[in-house]
Amino acid sequence: MQVDAFLGLAEALTGTPVKDVTATDKAFLGTILANDDRQIDCSQLNELLLLVNKDRMETPFFQRFFGDDCRVALLTAGVARFQQMAMLRYGNFIYAYRTLARFRTNDELKRELGEYGRTQEEIKEAFDSRSAKLLDIELIAREDTPLVGYLSAREIIAENERALLLQSCLPPAAQLPETSWEAFEQSVRGKTSPGQQRPVLGIAANYRVRQVDATVADFAGYIGTVVPKFNQRSARLDEVQSQATRNQDIYLTWDHMDVYFATSMRKSWEFRDLFDFVQGVMADADLASLKLRWFDPTQSYTTNRVNKGLVESLMLKRAKCTVYSVQDTDTLGKDSELAATLAQGKPVIAYVPQINPEERAGVLLNEDPVTIQERLRFVYHADEGFLANLTADDQDFVQNFQALQRFEQQRIWRSLPDPEAVASLRAENKGNLDRLCRIIAASEARIYDSRARTLRDFHPLAIQVNLDTGVANGVLVVRTIPDCARLLRRVLSGTMEFTLERNQQDRMWYLRETISECVYRVVSLDRKLTNCFWNFYLRQQGQ
Amino acid sequence: MDENMKLKIKLAAPQPNWEDEEKATNDVKVLREEYRRLLYASEGESEPKKEGNGESPVRGREEKR
Fold first, then answer.
1. CA distances from residue B63 to B56, B58, B59 in whole angstroms, order as listed
2. A347 to each of A160, A469, A497, how far by Cα in Å?
3. Higher pLDDT, residue A264 or A238
4. pLDDT band at A540 (very low <50, low <70, confident <90, very high)
5. In 3-state terms, what secondary structure has residue A511?
């Protein structure tokens, strides 16, 4: 090893530059370090450190980071192991070395390192020795998950009541044949408050668009078939919400909580997407053996918004790791929640789907037409390059293809599916729907790629300082479900792997996680900033 | 009007209804009562009257509950 290399190691180890090393000191160093195979023990390393005017270390420190068979050539790796630990536990090198190097027993050192001092065997043993669950949640089926959402419930309630009102405005059966639409609408207006006349009359109007020559009697028959369906939907809504409320109680009482899945969900597909994601991650072979417990928001319900917030905060506090599924809604609130989670100091994994446009177009094609229209609306607003990335032909096509917009405007009910109308639309517009879905899928790919890049490289909230410890914590971005599962396993089993990088341009040390390639910890090379920061942070802790 | 504006107008979301608004509570019973009050024209007429069209669907449903 070269002398300058050792001086660099001493600086990396202690966090401060090496000073006042004389030519004589360097000559001594040159002699000792010439043989890379030479064994170095704790005392010998201490002599080298004192030679370059640095503090010595106690034996437990040496054993943990350099091991029993340390040689000159292995000093670099030992220092890197220390730096990794220092960044994980303390977010700095100076304080880390001064604190850890002085412990005289392995137990003291291990205690100080806390969770970072646990071995993989100890962590595995903790999982293996867990009791089985006394209570488990009752899984709500994928297609029912939107019913735990507030929007779906309100849609069912509103449309159910509108259907009942319309039915109550119909004349007795004997008078139906001679009742005109005008008379019927007059009756509806008389009974409906002015603010609700538009959506109520819209139902009859859209029915008449669908059934061009229908009479009021025909509408009466139709409403007669719809009301029982709403009764069934209402009953199903009640069942699912009761089940989800019981599930929430079970989540609250579990003695362990390992993973909190977080996202914002409003539209039906967002519930189904998150259900698929959670099931996909937790079914992975990497995780199945760990007896994990996780909070799945598609399985939980509370009527009260404040309680909902409290539950989420509790899960966030208890869970060892939070996984954010980055959905469409790129809101300030969502990013703020992610930042607040990072500031707690726990690992946060952000899953940003990697879209294969070909496959995605196929999936979109099978969605409800209104969902496709909403996806188009979303990508138009979220993709800055949406129009610019279309050919002139495609731009023309998107602007003039009206079928989905018409379908959305003319559907009779939002909360009741209409398979006939959907089949008819698909049959009449197959080629156009295919073309539109490809355009949407390509745009989604751009949006999510951009989102991942932003989170990974320059989002101002993607690295947050833990307000208690001062340690900066970075979000870990993954693009696939297998990567998410692999990373989650490493997080929970204490086997995360990192690369250590000294970036001269940014003047930072970066500790990068290897699956996500994201910055997980940082140490600034700005001496004044680092010194002031830790002076005040450590003083706050009573140091 | 430029092409971008045309598309923006075309893709404008439909006019929101009561169900699109966030509510202070998400209790189904409370929401149902709230919406009934909003839906029907005059105060006190919060439930549809029997119109000689068979049993009132609302009363029938409530009895089932």
1. 11, 9, 6
2. 44, 15, 13
3. A238
4. low
5. strand
SS3 (DSSP) at A509: strand
* E-only strand ranges, A421-507: 463-465, 472-474, 476-478, 498-503
Give A478's strand partners.
A351
Q: Between B2 and A373, where is the model more confident?
A: A373
* DSSP string for residues in A258-302: -EEEE----SHHHHHHHHHHHHHHHTSHHHHTT---EE-GGG---
In this complex, the residue of A155, A377, A409 whose CB is nearest that of residue B19 is: A155
Question: Tokens 């001269």, residue?
Answer: A504
Query: Residue A145 in contact with residue A298, Cβ under 8 Å?
Result: yes
The type of residue at A116 is Y
Decide if A418 contacts A412 (C-beta within 8 A).
Answer: yes
Encoded amino acid at A341, one letter: T
State both tokens at B62: 């409530």
3-class DSSP state of A500: strand
Q: Are strands A476-478 and A259-262 parallel, antiparallel or unpaired?
A: unpaired
Chain A CB contacts of B6 under 8 Å are 399
For residue A329, what are the contacts with CB-CB under 8 A and spacing of at least 6? Answer: A264, A266
> What pLDDT sits at residue A116?
94
Half-sphere exposure of A369 (CA within 13 A, CB side): 28
Nearest to B39 by CA among A152, A206, A305, A169: A169
Q: Compute the nearest-CA separation of B34 from chain A (Å).
A: 10
What is the rounded distance in angstroms from the CA atom of residue A51 to the CA atom of residue A44? 11
Q: How many CB atoms lie within 10 A of CB A474?
A: 23
SS (H, E, C) A160-220: HHHHHHHHHHCCCHHHHHHCCHHHHHHHHHHHECHHHHHHHHHHHHHHHHHCCCCCHHHHH
Residue A535 pLDDT: 87
Collapse the DSSP code of A71 into the 3-class scheme (helix H, G, I; strand E, B; otherwise coil) and give the result.
strand
- Placement of tokens 């007795």 in the chain: A172
Give the Cα separation of A217 and A310 in Å (integer).
Answer: 51
Whether residue B13 is predicted with pLDDT greater than 90 in this model: the reply is: no
- How many residues make up chain A in this entry? 543
C-beta atoms surrounding A515 within 10 Å? 19
Alpha-carbon distance B59 to B56, whole Å? 5
Name every chain A residue with its beta carbon within 8 A of the beta carbon of B48: 164-165, 167-168, 191
pLDDT surpasses 90 at A39:
yes
Which has the closest alpha carbon to A279: A127, A371, A141?
A141
Residue A101 to residue A172: CA distance in whole angstroms: 91
How far is A43 from A70, CA to CA, in rounded Å? 12
- Three-state secondary-structure class, residue A473: strand
Query: How many whole angstroms separate alpha carbon A432 and alpha carbon A438?
Result: 10
Tokens of A183: 């008379």
Q: What is the pLDDT of residue A329?
A: 58
Which of the four pLDDT bands, split at 50, 70 and 90, describes residue B43? low
Window 207-236 of A: residues touching B by CB (8 A cutoff) are 227, 231, 234
Whether A205 and chain B come into contact, CB under 8 Å, resolves to no
